[in-house]
């Protein structure tokens, strides 16, 4: 993508920012989605990917941008400059997103790209367009422990002026537990992809594993994609995708999105990226209540989440 096209994406967001609003949630097959997505659902569901396309799926704030950057660097053999050709949402379009014109939708961006494409989604498994599975596309799913995911999503909803007003922290915990946030229930989300991972050849990763040993997880992604890069390139990718470096990378930190849409003064898009930050937010009473509800909602799932590393 040329520099002119790259600038035009940021300019499009700037021009549309005056009409940005906190979109209400509308359920699609029981899953609450922002109205801008729900009202454009038919073409999203009908999307037909190329078999060579790669899907990166996560619940919001579970390591999506991190994984997108790792994949882009693997594809470009660790070439940092090649991966600064455009902001993340242009290099790896957000499948279901729809925004006010002139911001291109995810589908609009995908139409301008030749396969193989790297496609991002937050859709739960049951809402992923069936073409991905019919065409046997590869998919990477990243899951983050519920408490840290909740904290990160709360701060994101405070700064993201397109999603419903988060309200106070204590109330947000209950919304999370009830699945009343954009893209629905975290519990259903992580379980849906877990159950289907072997049948659909989904690479299921954990955010905590990526923090604990990023090199090991980058190598797992590389092998899954049937790629081979040198140990030196792997080391370079690990360094380039460290939280510190990504937070300072304007092509990855969403600084291209202006304050009327993402208010970075409220909370940066890349805030802490830590495992265990939930302990700075949950009171002992909130933690106990959450843990009891978690046990009920996850009793039938044997997913090895860790809240500390």
Structure description:
This protein is of the alpha/beta class and 309 residues long. The chain has a single domain (3-297), classed as P-loop containing nucleotide triphosphate hydrolases (Rossmann fold), CATH 3.40.50.300. It has 15 helices and six strands. It has helices at 3-16, 35-38, 41-45, 64-75, 88-91, 106-111, 131-134, 146-159, 169-178, 186-196, 207-212, 214-224, 231-240, 243-247, 284-297, and strands at 25-28, 31-34, 54-58, 118-121, 138-143, 202-206. The strands form two sheets. Strands 4-3-5-6 form a four-stranded parallel beta sheet, sandwiched between helices. Strands 1-2 form a two-stranded antiparallel ribbon. It starts with a helix and ends in a 12-residue tail after the last helix. Mean pLDDT is 90; it is low at 1-7. Belongs to the sulfotransferase 1 family. Its EC number is 2.8.2.-. GO terms for molecular function: estrone sulfotransferase activity.
Compose a concise summary of this entry.
Its EC number is 2.8.2.-. The chain has about 300 residues and is an alpha/beta fold.
Largest sheet: 4 strands, parallel
Mean pLDDT: 90
Walk across the major sheet and give the strand order: 4-3-5-6
Task: Tell me the structural class.
Answer: alpha/beta
Straight-line N-to-C gap: 39 Å
Estimate the helix proportion, in percent.
40-55%
Structural domain count: 1
CATH topology (fold) name: Rossmann fold
In CATH terms, what is the architecture? 3-Layer(aba) Sandwich
Helix-strand pattern? HEEHHEHHHEHEHHHEHHHHH
Strand content: 5-15%
Low-confidence stretches: 1-7
- CATH homologous superfamily - what is it? P-loop containing nucleotide triphosphate hydrolases
CATH class: Alpha Beta
Q: How many beta strands in the DSSP annotation?
A: 6
Main location: cytoplasm
Protein name: Sulfotransferase
GO molecular function: estrone sulfotransferase activity
Keywords: Catecholamine metabolism, Cytoplasm, Transferase
């Amino acid at each position: 993508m040329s520099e002119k096209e790259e600038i035009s994406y940021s300019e499009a967001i700037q021009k549309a920012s005056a009409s940005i609003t906190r979109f209400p949630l509308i359920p699609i097959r029981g899953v609450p989605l922002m109205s801008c997505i729900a009202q454009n659902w038919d073409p999203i569901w009908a999307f037909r990917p190329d078999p060579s396309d790669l899907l990166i799926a996560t619940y919001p704030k579970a390591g999506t941008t991190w994984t997108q950057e790792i994949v882009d660097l693997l594809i470009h053999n660790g070439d940092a400059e090649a991966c600064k050709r455009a902001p993340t949402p242009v290099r790896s379009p957000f499948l279901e997103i729809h925004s006010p014109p002139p911001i291109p939708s995810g589908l609009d961006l995908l139409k301008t790209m030749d396969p193989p494409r790297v496609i991002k989604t937050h859709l739960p498994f049951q809402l992923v367009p069936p073409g991905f599975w019919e065409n046997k596309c590869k998919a990477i799913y990243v899951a983050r422990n519920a408490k840290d995911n909740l904290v990160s999503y709360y701060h994101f909803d405070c700064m993201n002026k397109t999603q419903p007003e988060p309200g106070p922290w204590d109330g947000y915990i209950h919304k999370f537990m009830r699945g009343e946030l954009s893209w629905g229930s975290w519990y259903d989300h992580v379980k849906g992809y877990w159950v289907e991972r072997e049948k659909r050849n989904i690479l299921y990763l954990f955010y905590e594993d990526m923090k604990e040993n990023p090199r090991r997880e980058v190598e797992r992604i590389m092998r899954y994609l049937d790629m081979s890069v040198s140990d030196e390139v792997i080391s370079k990718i690990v360094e380039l995708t460290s939280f510190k470096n990504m937070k300072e990378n304007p092509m990855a930190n969403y600084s291209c999105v202006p304050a009327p849409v993402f208010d970075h003064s409220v909370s940066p898009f890349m805030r802490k990226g830590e495992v265990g930050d939930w302990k700075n937010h949950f009171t002992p009473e909130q933690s106990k209540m959450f843990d009891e509800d978690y046990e009920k909602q996850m009793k039938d799932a044997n997913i090895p989440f860790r809240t500390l590393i």
